[in-house]
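Fold sample X.
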Amino acid sequence: QVQLVESGGGLVQAGGSLRLSCAASGRTSTSYSMGWFRQAPGKEREFVGVSRNGGSTYLVDSVKGRFTISRDNAKNTVYLQMNSLKPEDTAVYYCAARGGSFTTLPVTDRRFYEYWGQGTQVAVSS
């Protein structure tokens, strides 16, 4: 089992920055892919980005150039640095993890992930 705990959310003005953290505990390893999703009120949970188990990262176009993903394997923590925030970034942000087992599901699919955090609220005022 893996437990994920997000932190770092809050209220920020448009143009501001936040850094979200996702601390993993339990049976974790560098072979885990760590993803970030977000869910705005009344909308579906959507993929934001991923730190793959091979070390590469991928972000959706809507946040490219503003968000970055990094991980500290020694701390079992993945980060989502969010800059130039916009009101449309307002959502609950979730981190998710998957171990190294094979799947044909893409990393952008919620079903790819085996473990989820409880979420952290990000609110961006205009």
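Fold sample Y, listed below.
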Amino acid sequence: QLQLVESGGDLAQPGGSLSLSCALSGFTLDHYAIGWFRQAPGKEREGVSCLSSKDRSTSYADSVKGRYTISRDNAKNTVYLQMNSLKPEDTAVYYCAAVFLPWGDCGLTDGEYDYWGQGTQVTVSS
């Protein structure tokens, strides 16, 4: 059974940093692309970043480029999202998601992903 569990969400001040984790079970990162998405109240879910399986290529939304970094630890079967220079508009529930994609580049469209975690709340406020 494929399962994704996010953690690390918290309250942070503007300009601060948080690191989110997405622990995976039931599958490995060798054949799955992983994406991070977020949904703020009253807004549609948007893709934030993704990590491809084989070549580990990455993609970022323009709104987070230069501030967020996605990475993975194969030994821990975990994907991370390091978020720096946080802004109030980064406030949202953050989700990680997975799709079987042994080759090719990952995408930031939620319809491309088949498996989802339960989400973790990130609040940026002074």
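Sample Y note: The mean pLDDT is 95.
Also: DSSP finds no helices and eleven strands in the chain.
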